[in-house]
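Standup notes, structure subgroup. Blocker cleared on the biotinyl-5-AMP input:
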Amino acid sequence: MRDKILYLLSGGDFVSGEKLAEHLDVSRTAIWKQIKALKALGYEIESIKNKGYRLVSRPDVPIAEEITSGLDTKIIGKEVHYFKSLSSTNVFGKKLVEDGAHEGAVVVADVQTSGRGRKDRKWSSPKGGLWFSVVLYPHIPPHRGMLVTMVSSVSVAQGIKEVTGLSPVIKWPNDLLLNGKKVCGVLTELDAEMDRINYTVVGIGINVNNLIDEKLQNTAISLIQESGSKISRVKLLKSILKYLDENYSRLLSGDYGSIRDLWFSHAKIIGKRIRVKGEKTVIEGTVSEIDDSGCLILDTGNGIARIVSGDVEYL
Ligand code: BT5
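Run returned:
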C-alpha cells in the first residue's frame, strides 16, 4: 500500500486523505497510519487539515519502495529486502534461496555487523555505505562461475560512472579501485553440481558516504572522498541493478564475448606485471589474457599459467 501512496503523492501537490483512501479502497485512518510509517522511514510529508498530504522529500534509504519505483528491469530487483542492520547480506541471501526466493531478489542493509570478504576476511560495513546481495540462478557450468563476478563488477563500474561521473578500474578478480584504492569488493558465493550452478549469491560492498576504517585508510577509499559531495545510495543502487539486469541477460544468453569486452573496457590489466597469491602458491608474471571463463592467463617467463583465483598485487 505504501508504494501506491508514494506514487499518488509523487506529483508534489497536496492530495486529500479522502482521495487516497478512495483510490486504495481503505479507510482514512489506514492512510494516516501508513503516512506515519512513511515518516518514520524518513519521508518528509506535510499534512494540512482540509488539504491533505504533500510529499516534501524522500529519504536516501534503499527501502523496497524507493528501489523498485520506476526500476525497469526484467529479472533483477523485483523483490527487495531492506534492513537497518544485518550480520551479512550474503548470509541472508542464502536463507532467501532456501526459502525459494525469486531470481534477482536483493538484500540490502545500512550496516553489517559481520560483513565478510573472501576467505572469511572481515569487511568493514558502517553506516553510509552500500552493502547488498543479489540472488541469481545462472544455470551455467561451474567453471564459468567467475563470469558472474565479472558481470557484477562491470555493472557496479557502470553504475558508479552514471551516478558520480567517476571511472573505477576493475582489479581482477573482484575489486574496483579509484586512484589505486579499493572502493568496492564483490563476494560471489555459489552452490553447484558437476555440470551446472544451482545458485549464486553475489555480495557487493561499496564505500559510498561512509567513513573509512582507520586501519584501511591507506588501501580503501569512498565515493564521497573522490567526488567531494554526498552520493545518493538509492540512485546508485538502482543504476547498478539496471546494468546488472542488462549484463546478466548477456550471461544467460551465452554472450560471453561481450561480457569479456565490457570487462576489458573497465580493467587495464593486459601487459601488467603482477604477483598472484593463491592458497599455497605465489606466481609472478605478465598478464597476457583473460580467457572466456574469466581466468587470468599469465606469462611467467617459464611458460603460461592459468589462474582461477587468488589475490593480485601490481609490481
Ligand atoms: C572482498 O573480499 O573484496 C569482498 C567484499 C564483499 C563485501 C560485500 S558487502 C555485502 C555482502 N555481504 C557480505 O558479508 N559481504 C558482501 P576480499 O577480496 O577478500 O577483500 C577483503 C579485504 O578488503 C579485507 O581483508 C580488508 O583488507 C579490505 N576491506 C575490508 N573492508 C573494506 C572496505 N569497506 N573497503 C575497502 N576495503 C576493505
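Discussed briefly. The domain at 2-57 is CATH 1.10.10.10 (Arc Repressor Mutant, subunit A).
Next: hand off to the docking folks.
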